[in-house]
Task: structure prediction
Amino acid sequence: MATNYKFKRLNAGRDFIAGNFNAPLNLSDMAKNAHMSPYHFLRSFKDTYGETPNEFLIRLRVESAKRMLITENFSVSEVCEKVGYISLGSFSSLFLKQTGMAPTLYRRKLWALSAEAYRFPSQAIPACYAYHFLGK
Result:
């Protein structure tokens, strides 16, 4: 019973992160929403989901940035701000670490697959091919 209650609180914290990933978040905000102390939330989150709350937050932000980079005509700086980062350098280094390439190169490679500017041909190119093309 206590484990189920703890899992519900962790899910509330995870949902809070997912719903507010583009806003500035810190561990205290996340833990407060789960009604836990910050360090208990951190340890429990990692044990339950296999990643820290910050790793989860970074993953959500990078996935959102990837979608924006291939389907929108925003500059990399605008994408950086829209996914919740203030520093373009931090965003670029985290993006590089997660995807293996810089945001600009990621966009350029995927746009090269499309005949229509600023549009990723999702209907024409299977995702598995795009991932292979990107070296994933």
About this structure: The CA atoms of residues 13 and 34 lie 5 Å apart. The chain has a mean pLDDT of 86. The first helix runs from residue 2 to 19.
